[in-house]
Design a protein that fits this description.
alpha/beta; six-stranded mixed β-sheet; 30% helix; globular
Length: 269
């Protein structure tokens, strides 16, 4: 479906991507990494917006793409906006109306079909962006920070939408929100400083740091042994969640994907 071989992307003296190799088939993939790790650059290279400095990318001809910043014409209606995108995607006119209404229904904005884009909230505009990415029944769908600006209910709707996308589709979700990846994705790709540092299932990522996460009473703070990373402090429960390869006071607990993410980003795996 999507094959990336030895891709490098440089901007003058800065290397944004380095030695990227990926084989992506059907399923839902999470591209996880901190801000500035190269996620958006990789997305743009896949779509053809950017041409890599080196390497090859083989992608389907039909790609749906939600960019990190979704631009729109405020004077157009919701329907006119999606109609514009169907024209850009060369979707036959006789199919456009039904397809537009179907995509609006998926993002729960059918009642806004005649509203002007300039009157919509930021969350609604984001949902229109998701709808346009689904137009044309693409084989590969790329979502760059799809839940940015969405309230909790809208994020839940997005999660449900992704869960119902046909199994033969390939979906890549780029985000720095671990919850989005853990909720939706059956395969995780962790990108840091332009390099893939680990990839696999959530189960694999958690297994890789098994035995390194501790729940420690706040009263034992002075007994902690360096080096360690404080993941979370819960004043209500009176505990600290600690990441460390050194034995700590308290109880070893099962790692989460977030724990694994922090471990790899900080080089403690």
């Amino acid at each position: 479906m999507l094959k990336i071989q030895d891709v490098e992307m440089k901007f003058k003296s800065k290397t944004a991507l380095c030695n990227i190799d990926l084989n992506v088939c059907s399923g839902i993939y999470g591209l996880l990494g901190p801000n500035g790790s190269g996620k958006t650059t990789l997305m743009r290279c896949i779509t053809g917006i950017l041409k890599p400095t080196r390497g090859k990318i083989q992608a389907p001809s039909k790609i749906g793409y939600l960019p990190q910043k979704f631009g729109m014409y405020p004077q157009l209606t919701v329907y006119e906006t999606l109609e514009y995108f169907t024209s850009l995607k060369d979707i036959p006119r006789k199919q456009q109306h039904e397809m537009i209404l179907d995509c609006l229904e998926k993002v729960h904005l059918t009642e806004r079909v005649n509203d002007r884009m300039g009157t919509l909230s930021g969350g609604m505009i984001r949902r229109i962006g998701i709808a346009q990415a689904l137009l044309g029944d693409p084989e590969l769908i790329l979502f760059d920070e799809p839940t940015a600006g969405l309230d909790p209910e809208e994020r839940l709707r997005f999660h449900n939408l992704i869960a119902h996308i046909q199994k033969e589709k390939c979906v890549v979700i780029s985000t720095h929100i671990v919850e989005d990846v853990e909720s939706n994705c059956n395969h995780i790709i962790l990108l840091c400083q332009g390099r893939i540092i680990v990839q696999g299932t959530a189960k694999k990522l958690k297994r890789n740091i098994n035995g390194s996460v501790y729940l420690v009473p706040l009263t034992c703070r002075d007994e902690l042994c360096e080096p360690y990373t404080l993941l979370r402090e819960d004043a209500t429960a009176g505990t600290m969640r600690i990441l460390s390869n050194t034995a700590q006071p308290g109880t070893q607990v099962e790692p989460s994907v977030e724990d694994s993410y922090i471990s790899y980003i900080r080089g403690q795996e």
